[in-house]
Amino acid sequence: LMCTFRENALYYVTTPIFYVNAAPHIGHLYSALIADCLYRYKLMRGFRSKFSTGTDEHGLKIQQAADAAGKEPPVFCAEVSGKFQQLFQRCNISYTDYIRTTEGRHRHAVEYFWTVLLNKGFIYKGSYEGWYSTQDESFLTASQVEDSMDCEGTAIKISAESGHKVEWMKEDNYMFRLSAFRSLLRQWLEENPKVVQPQRFHRTVLQWLQDDLPDLSVSRQWSRLQWGIPVPGDSEQTVYVWLDALVNYLTVAGYPQGHSEWWSAAHHVVGKDILKFHAIYWPAFLLAAGLPLPQAIYVHSHWTVEGQKMSKSLGNVVDPVERSDRFTVDGIRYFLLRQGVPDSDCDYYDDKLMKLLNSELAGSLGGLLNRCTAPSLNPAQVYPSFCNTCFPREPAEGSTESKATQEDYKMLEAVSILPAVMERHFENLQVYKALEAIAGCVRQTNGFVQRHAPWKLDQRDPQDQRWLDTILHISLECLRIYGTLLQPVVPETAEKLLSRLGVGPEERSWEMLKFLARYHGRECPFEGRRLGPDSGVLFSRLDRPETDQG
Ligand code: ME8
After folding, report:
1. Could you tell me which residues are beta bridge partners of residue 68?
2. Which of 146, 279, 475, 530 is the most exposed place for a label (fewest CB within 10 A)?
3. Helix, strand, or coil here: 141?
């Protein structure tokens, strides 16, 4: 069906590639979910789309983690990378590309990229002396470092931003002329005020660029770091893991050959912890290589757990596989996307998740579907017809047949503009606002049904029956819109909902979102059609486990 794609409308979305030092947690899943949601949304809008994720497998941190696990790095990396892949498959993350930095195609891309930078004079031999955090694989200036104490009471230095330990390092390295790009980077950000979103992160980057931008060390001595890509032509040096990692976005686009098409449509989803790497280092590398800059960098904040930073040492890491078993895949998807706010950190706890899902998916949405398809109200199991006399276009003063109230018209208005509202929020990476808007509309539709209490109508009375059908028709139309719009967020639940309504797979596209055609005097393709089979409750209520382990 290539012809239905918009010509030249391409969309390429990426997640960070995740370090394989530990198993995935809900924070990693959250990044992948945002990207998945944007990807599915763009597909619905007819874009030809690519969605890449994967694992970052080189560097000192991974080398040390493999050592600690008593495994050879390639074996260790393959195991943990497999866990990410399994999690994403299980959670319906519909990536088109999965990249591992240990792949040959990636090594080739990095070598090529390096050689371009070298030939253009942006890489030179020098020496680095300063702070390094292995946990963050990051070089830090004196002002980014502060005093602290380790668990044994020894004085140490840590990164002010991440809290991770730093060490003094002095090595001969290859250096990248980052300092040469300060004003170009500023210009790029000023000319493209929406390139880093949300706004506050855009401002942060501009703030950073007020300070001097020192040149960046882009290699490590082989004697210190063996697990990585050797610098082309100098086997005494290994490519700095962040240069290696960032190039993954190009590798997936096909670099060094035939990448232009996809690369020109690149959108990066990243956590706030790696903003500097994506909004300063990466664009500087790209400028140096003479390549276009990404279309957008979407930044999100972090998940904490019951008020604390999630960490292996605190033992409070939330396992997304276990949670998706307990709360269903769509449950965890809905919760994270509905509650995750890009601007500030969000707190995870199971109770909050259960309350939200019980109230919105099981209660509000599931309840609405249940009511409107119940055999008692809809014995024929059809999409009932809409009656214009019962529900006229204009609120008819004094008409006895019209039962519609002001609130009903308000509800219709809210649902009609919902696709446009969703579009605006998605374009601004505010999936949670789109979901808030949908949840608000679902509530209004429930209010509508409650207000008119169709179960009190007399089905033997023709006038009552027409009004009953109209109430159901409107409610099913609302549900059809909600189901269609929820597809990128909760694909399985949306599938179930739309199938129950009898909406076919080819009728779930953005173009089908025309709400309540009959009200506008047009034909409704669904009116009079049989509903789909009843396959049980839309979303089961979640109960607290019998024995509380806490
Ligand atoms: O930084 N809440 O990998 P990483 C939300 N390999 N998101 C979180 C999170 C949390 N608590 N913790 C992690 C790296 N993330 C590099 C990236 S890209 C070229 C190289 C998410 O395994 C978030 O997206 O430490 C964050 O940026 C990313 O995982 C870091 O993953």
Report:
1. none
2. 530
3. coil
**pLDDT above 90 (res 397):** no
What is the phi/psi pair of residue 513, to 5°?
-75, 5
Predicted TM-score (pTM) of this structure: 0.95
Q: Of 92, 83, 100, 81, give the one whose Cα is nearest residue 35.
A: 92
Letter for the amino acid at 290?
G
Residue whose Cα lies nearest atom 9 of ligand 1: it is 27
| Ligand 1, CB within 6 Å, residue ranges | 16-19, 27-28, 30-31, 56, 245-246, 248, 270-271, 273-274, 302-303, 310
Count of helix runs (H) and strand runs (E) in the chain = 19, 18
**Start-to-end CA span in the chain (Å):** 52
Pocket test for ligand 1, best of 15, 31, 280 (most atoms within 8 A of CB): 31
- Measured distance CA(268)–CA(195) in Å, rounded: 10
Per-residue pLDDT tens over the stretch 92-144: 999 999 999 999 999 999 999 999 999 999 999 999 999 999 999 999 988 89
pLDDT in tens, 375-395: 999 999 999 999 999 999 876
Q: How remote is the CA of residue 18 from the centroid of ligand 1, in Å?
A: 6
Q: Report the pLDDT value the prediction gives residue 398, as an integer from 0 to 100.
A: 63
ipTM of predicted complex: 0.99
Q: Which of 478, 480, 334, 513 is nearest to 408 (CA)?
A: 478
- Residues in Cβ contact with 480 at an 8 Å cutoff, skipping those fewer than 6 apart: 498, 501, 503, 526
- The secondary structure of 136-167 as a DSSP string is TTEEE-GGGEEEEE-TTS-EEEEETTT--EEE
- The answer to whether 292 and 124 have CB atoms below 8 angstroms apart is no
Nearest Cα residue to atom 21 of ligand 1:
28
Q: Are strands 216-217 and 219-221 parallel, antiparallel or unpaired?
A: unpaired
**Rounded (5°) CA angle 501-523-499:** 10
- At 45-94, the pLDDT tens digits run 999 999 999 999 999 999 999 999 999 999 999 999 999 999 999 999 99
The DSSP secondary-structure symbol of 167 reads E
- Could you give the angle at the alpha carbon of 215 between the alpha carbons of 213 and 221, nearest 5°? 145
Residue type, 232: P
Three-class secondary structure of residue 19 per DSSP: strand
Query: What CA–CA distance (Å, rounded) separates 17 from 267?
Result: 14
DSSP 448-496: HHHHH-GGGS-TTSHHHHHHHHHHHHHHHHHHHHHHHHHTTT-HHHHHH
In this prediction, residue 191 carries a pLDDT of 98
Question: Residue 97: what residue type?
Answer: D
**Closest residue by CA, ligand 1 atom 10:** 27
What is the DSSP-derived secondary structure letter of residue 512? G
CB-side exposure of 375: number of CA atoms within 13 Å?
Answer: 2
CA-nearest of 310, 307, 279, 309 to 294 is 279
